[in-house]
Amino acid sequence: MKEKIILKLGGSVITDKSSGECKVNKSVLEKIAVELASRENVVPVIVHGAGSCGHPEAKEHHLDKGLDHTNKAGIFITHRAVCSLNDEVVNALRASGVEAVGIHPLDACTAKNGRLISFDSSPVELLIQNGVIPVLHGDVVMDIGQGACIVSGDQLISCLAGKMAVDRIGLATDVAGVFDRDGNVIRHITRNNAGGLEIRGSGSTDVTGGMRGKIDELLLLAEEGVESELFHISRVSDFLDGRDNGGTRVSP
Ligand SMILES: Nc1ncnc2c1ncn2[C@@H]1O[C@H](COP(=O)(O)OP(=O)(O)OP(=O)(O)O)[C@@H](O)[C@H]1O
Ligand SMILES: C=C(C)CCOP(=O)(O)O
């Protein structure tokens, strides 16, 4: 029986996030695609972040703060940036023989004050039933409270996991896991120990809260009874094979 998994490819991994402009790490994408092509044990849904292909644009047009009369063009500009990255991810997968297609949250979701309130997951489920890997991404989303907002790939994961049964959820980033003050990986986070941790944002331009935003989102997911794992991209094969990946588990 194949495991249904959600794998988030962090923007810190698939782009050069420290660059002020969209720079895709094509060689990393190729390696991930080869890993996925060789796996018969999992049916993945891929979600990716924006990194330098979306965060700088969203920040410049302050879309995380909503729409006003000055920033409407930011919708197109930000969406185009992250869609260009989505094309690169899909193309890398397809070049390795993995049948994949992009799904864009702007077309499929509605939010209220920054939180998703509707997302029809049936295309995602039908695609995987038919052997095609859906590739979703953090995006600008129309918002009935503030006009528009930025929905992170992390929030999308929570939303998807609430709608479809998945066996495991993994988030690959540029760090080995969540570090404590001494730089050691915290192997297990729950609501009980999360309060005392020093978790900050990203070192690069980021409108969705960096590691802090990610852990807050994963703790909400944990409250729904769903566990997730955060690990370094170099350990993706361990995650795919269900082995210890040296990272941080966030659980109820
Ligand atoms: N306590 C911490 N432990 C580990 N990383 C931390 C911590 N606090 C802040 N960080 C930062 O969080 C970053 C990872 O979060 P980030 O949001 O950039 O990842 P991502 O999901 O790959 O990116 P994106 O949001 O573009 O998809 C690390 O590069 C690190 O600088
Ligand atoms: C900035 C945009 C468009 C999406 C952000 O998604 P994330 O990189 O998963 O936080």
TrEMBL record:
Substrate binds at residues 50, 55, 153. GO terms for cellular component: cytosol. Residues 4-226 form the Aspartate/glutamate/uridylate kinase domain. Keywords: ATP-binding, Isoprene biosynthesis, Kinase, Nucleotide-binding, Transferase. The record marks 17 as: Transition state stabilizer. It catalyses: isopentenyl phosphate + ATP = isopentenyl diphosphate + ADP. Belongs to the isopentenyl phosphate kinase family. Homodimer. Catalyzes the formation of isopentenyl diphosphate (IPP), the building block of all isoprenoids. This is Isopentenyl phosphate kinase.
